[in-house]
Amino acid sequence: MKKSMYKKFQKIAGKKNCFVNPEELSGYCFDAFAKSNAFPEIVVAPESPECIPEIITLCNEENLAIVTRGAGTNLSGGTLPFDGSCVLLTTKLNKIKEINKADHYAVVEAGVVTADIANAAASAGLFYPPDPGSMNISTIGGNVAENAGGLRGLKYGVTKDYLMGLTLFDAEANKVIGGGRTVKQVTGFNLPGLFAGSEGLLGIMAEFILKLIPPPESSKSMLVTYNDILKACDTVSQIIAANILPATMELMDNFTIRTVEEATEIGLPVDADALLLLEIDGHHGQVEDEFDKVKSICKKNNGHLKIAEDEDSKNKIWEARRKALSSLARLKPTLILEDATVPRSKISSMMSSIMDISRKYEITIGTFGHAGDGNLHPTILTDKRDKDEMLRVEKAVDDIFSVALSLGGTLSGEHGIGTAKSKYLEMEYGSGTVKFMKNLKRGVDIKNVLNPGKMGL
C-alpha cells in the first residue's frame, strides 16, 4: 500500500487500528469455511461508527473493495478478502448502548459478541433467544449479515425475527436508518428485513435495535436414544404434527455421538444409532403437559429416555450438542459443513438420502443439526489434498443440494451463500431471481464496492 494512502487510513481510524504488514493481514484471510489465497491491502478496525463513512469515501477514491468482517466465524466464505481490498473490521464497535426494560429492546453496536447481548438481557430479567453455535465468539453484525439461526430457532425464530431497527452506511457513505424502537413500524421500505442475510453486499451495518422478550418460566430437557436413526427422524415429524413446539430438538447420528464422546467423555451412549436432545419451555403447567406428550411420542418410536433432573445434567446434554462440530473437526484436515434444510415432515427422507450419498461416494459424513426446524448439518470429513476424494465430495455436495431442493427445501438454512454456494443459487430460485438480486445490488452499489462477487453478485 502506498504510504500516503496508509496515512489517510491512520488519520481516520488511528495508527493502532490500521494493519498492513503481511503477518497481520494473514489473520484476516480466512473464515470458518475456507482460507483465501488473496491478501487485502489493509485491515481497518474503527472504534466509532462515525469513522465508517470516511473509510467508505476513501475506499471509493482509491478504488478499494470493502469486505466487512466481524469475528470471521461464518461458514460460507462471506468474509474472505480480495487482492486490493480493505477489510473493515467491526470488532471494536462493541458497545451495548441500551437495555430497555420498559419497552423490551436492546441497542448494540455491530461488534458486540452475541453471548454478551444474551447475558446483558438476562441480567435485566429479559431474554434474547437467537443462539448460533458460535455465540460465544460471533458478533451481532455477522449474525444479522448471515441471518444466523441456532438451537432455539424451532420455537423462537432466528436473528431476523429480533431485528427491529438498524443504522448503516451505504456505498456512497450516506447514513441510512431503517426500522426503530416501536413494535409496529411501516415507514418506508423494510430495511431491517432486507439487510438480514445481505452478507455485506448492500451496506455496512453499524448499530442494531434488537427485540427482547420475557424469559420462559420453566424448562425441562431430555436425551432420547434410538437404535434406528429414521425412527428418531419420525419422532421429530410426529412431535411437530402434534402441535408441540419444543424450544430445541436436536439430532446426532452414531458417528457424531462416538466422535463427541471420544473428545469430551461426557458419557454419551456410543452404541445408539441416533440421539434426540429436546427441551420444552414455557409456563410450568404447559411444560409438564407437553413434556408428557413428547415422552409418549418418543416411546412410541422405540426411543429410550434419559431426563435431566437438575441444571448440571441439563447443561451436560446441551454441551454434547454444542461440541459436535469441534469434535468432528479433529478427525480430518478438511471439514465441509453443509446446512441443507427441508420441511420438517421430510426429515426422514433427507436423512435416508444423506446415508445413501455417503455410501455411493465412499465418503465419511457425520450428521447432526436442528432437526426440529428441518435444518440438518451433514458434515463431510476429508482431505483437500486427496484430489480423487475431493471430486467425489463435490459430487456428493451436489447430490445433497439436489435432494434437499427436490423435497421442497433450501440450499442454506442458516450459513448463507457467500462463495461456498453461489453457483447453486440459480438452482433454487431461477435466473429471474438472480437477475433481480444483481439489479438490486447494482442499484445501491453502482461501483460494486461492497463485498463484490459474494453470492455470485
Tell me the number of strands: 16
CATH topology of the largest domain: Alpha-Beta Plaits
Estimate the strand proportion. 15-25%
The main sheet comes to:
7 strands, antiparallel
CATH class of the largest domain: Alpha Beta
- What number of domains? 4
Output the structural class. alpha+beta
| Principal-axis shape | globular
Name the CATH architecture of the largest domain. Answer: 2-Layer Sandwich
- The averaged pLDDT comes out at 95
Give helix % range: 25-40%
Alpha carbon gyration radius: 22 Å
Number of helices: 16
Oligomer: single chain
Strand order of the largest sheet: 13-10-12-11-15-16-14
Report how far apart the termini are: 27 Å
Question: What does this protein look like?
Answer:
With 457 residues, the protein is α+β, with helices and mostly antiparallel strands. It has four domains: 3-92, Uridine Diphospho-n-acetylenolpyruvylglucosamine Reductase, domain 2; 96-211, Uridine Diphospho-n-acetylenolpyruvylglucosamine Reductase, domain 3 (2-Layer Sandwich); 218-326, 2-Layer Sandwich (Alpha-Beta Plaits), CATH 3.30.70.3450; 332-446 and 453-457, Alpha-Beta Plaits (2-Layer Sandwich). Helix content is 36%, strand content 20%. The chain is built from 16 helices and 16 strands. The strands form three sheets. It has a seven-stranded antiparallel β-sheet, with helices on both faces. A five-stranded antiparallel β-sheet has the order 5-6-9-7-8. The longest helix is centred in the last third of the chain and has 20 residues, at 387-406. It is globular. The two termini are 27 Å apart. The model has no long low-confidence stretch (mean pLDDT 95).
